[in-house]
């Protein structure tokens, strides 16, 4: 299905239930335990975020700054470490030894009332996640988001360095045939195509925000050259899939005033005609999941994989199967 010749998991003929940061609705995010739970709940693909540390290792974590609402200092990596306390610092400034002392499993998030803590959980290496989860589920795919911000370059490494480090980790874990690279920063998506043309890629976008006139997130792609059409722009980028925010305004649900479904049936049909899969995020409400799945998307990114499995079971015949 890919315009770039690299095929991701979306050719398998069933809805790809993609666990967002693992199963964030059930277990604290981006921990090994959360990824394992997602697979247990029926996820066939796992979405995760990666960043590069001060000692050039790739770790799985979403936020460029260690937030006190998610992270808890325990002890310095070495006695009298001048960088301690680590919480509140930029992740890119810390080494894996320093990060290994930070507890990211003890603090649950109020917006996820079912979320379980995992006290003592640490920020994992990408290689650890890839290897551990594939031992549980060899056929699982990984939708790896390269966390970069072109408006805040001090918060991370550059696109070329990020892609090189991630590719090295993926190769070390033997997961080259189970990884898709994606990013909101389309410079990184293009760089991934140059460094690893056979690896599938996806274009993350928020219609009206990252995908907007003059946006710094689009790299060499110009919004105006494509008449504001996300499908056209993504096809020009050479990716195999679009991973859009599922609705506008950003953060809306189907009951929000002014709600519009981005990945509606017409959008999906146009994307498929251009050779692109459609995998919207982050859809959590059961009614919203049915709306999205019913539009014919190829996958859905959710904090609750079990809910997506149920939605697919209700709407698709046989459960999970997609039409031709």
UniProtKB/TrEMBL annotation:
Xref: InterPro entries: GP_PDE_dom (IPR030395), PLC-like_Pdiesterase_TIM-brl (IPR017946)
GO biological process: lipid metabolic process
TM region(s), chain numbering: none
Domain of life according to the entry: Bacteria
Domain GP-PDE: 15-312
Gene Ontology MF term list: phosphoric diester hydrolase activity
PANTHER family: GLYCEROPHOSPHODIESTER PHOSPHODIESTERASE, GLYCEROPHOSPHORYL DIESTER PHOSPHODIESTERASE
Protein name per Swiss-Prot or TrEMBL: Glycerophosphodiester phosphodiesterase
